[in-house]
Each structure stands twice: as C-alpha cells, then as structure tokens.
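Entry:
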Amino acid sequence: MASIPHKAHWRAAAVISVALLSIIGCRSKPEPTPVVVARVGNQTLTESEVEAWEASLQQNKIPEEARSAFIRRWIEEELLAQAAQDRGLLDDPWVQTQVDETLRKLLTARLIEIESANIAAPTRLEIETYFKVHQDEFVWERLHMKIEYWQSSSRPTLERLRRDLASARPTPLDPKENAPVDSGQFEITDPTGVDPSAWKLFGRMNTGQLSYPIYFRNTYWMFRMQRRDEAGSTKTMEDVREEISARLLEGARAKRQAELIKQLTDDYRKSGKLEWPFQNAPDTSSAMFQE
C-alpha cells in the first residue's frame, strides 16, 4: 500500500482542526482558563491533566513524590521531543515512515471500531452455550480463595460477632458499646503481598469456615472462607461470564472484519484498483470467510 504523504496529511489536518475550532468557538461558552502546572516552550501541562492521571491510578491518596515524579517525567519527555523538532527530525525519513505506519494502524483500528459499533452484546443463552462447549478450558491454574473479613481494634467485639455469625443470629453491634468494625471481601490466588500468618491460616480453612479473631498488623481480624477452589478445578459460568462475553464479541468483530475485507476486495477488483496473483483465477474468496 502506498505511503500516506506526510506533509500533505499534516497540512490537511491543520486546516480541518482550525475549521473545527472556529465552529466550536462560535457555539460553545468560554471555557475557564486552565491552571498550568508546568510549561516547556509552547506546550503546557495543566492541573486537570495531572488530576486525570491521578484518577487513573484508582488510589485514595496519591503521594506527593509520585505527583512530582509524573510532572518531572512529562517535562523531560517534552524537552527531548521539542529538541528533536528543533533539529528537524520531523522530516527524518525514519520518523516519517513510523508516522505513516502508526497512522495506518490507527485508521484501520478506527474503521473496524466503527464497523463493529452495531454488534449486539452476547445473550445469556449464547454465553451458556459457549460455556457448555468449552467448559474444559476454564480451570483454576492455582489455588483460588474468596474470603470475607472483619477488622476491629477490639478482640471482644470480634469474639461477640463470631458467636453471632456462628449461630446465624443477627449481629446488631452498638457503636456506642463496641469498637467500630470494618468489613469486606477479597479474592487471592497468590501469597505475594499477603501476611504470612494470614496465608497460613487461609491454607487450613475450608469453604464456609469461620476463623477465630487473630492479631496482626496492629489490629484484630476475623475471616470466613466464602469459597475455595483447588488448582485444576473447573470454574463456574459466573466466574468466566465476562471472559466468554469478550471472546464472543471478539469473534463477532473478526467475522465483521472478514466480511468487510471481502466486500472491499470485490469493489476494488471491479474498479481495477486491486491487482494480485489470483485476480484471474476462479473466485473462491467467499469460501475464505466461511465459518
């Protein structure tokens, strides 16, 4: 495929960008002036961009050192990028080839995304059918545990809670009389990052078993093994529902891509824009895309 002209592409993009900005500027309200965190030449890093990076980490609080390191990396990369432009590397043949290849990949990916926009999500029946056929593929490679936990600074509080849980009685803990209890659940398949004493405890617990309060990390903890799956055991359909859905969607996208390629092949053949060694051979292209 012919390379996309580099300079012509960027000139066209610039004209389109200016036109779009003019239209947007006429129809939208003035945006508040962004707070600039750092600037290199005519490029700026804004507070909203830093906040977007922080949000992507999905952490409650980002250390100031991490924020500073992010800003420093941005400055260093921008310094190098602008120095490269100052040396005329935008016209470097290798850079132009890489830009063309990257642009072609982006265009192709975007086309497939647009063509696949109307593909419906897999139905429950489709997912169940796929699971029945491919059930042997879905096994736990390692020990998998789903654990419920309670945490409190008071051992008597957890001991009372354990008695109520063990007897299946309601557990109305009065916050005035008892230390606050934090609770939740988690899944683990790897001892990395798990307190050794807790991992040893989990290794002895069976499904449904409730532990006694134990003390580590300066507080008291209690655990219940909600589910334990040994390595090699088969996963349930609920465990793999999202994975199956992703597989089915990917298959539908691949089918749509094959259909699009066949359509384009026929169109380009008829217009004389496609040449290949088998152009004059009997047309068997439809068989290429049969399931």
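Residues 6-115 form one domain.
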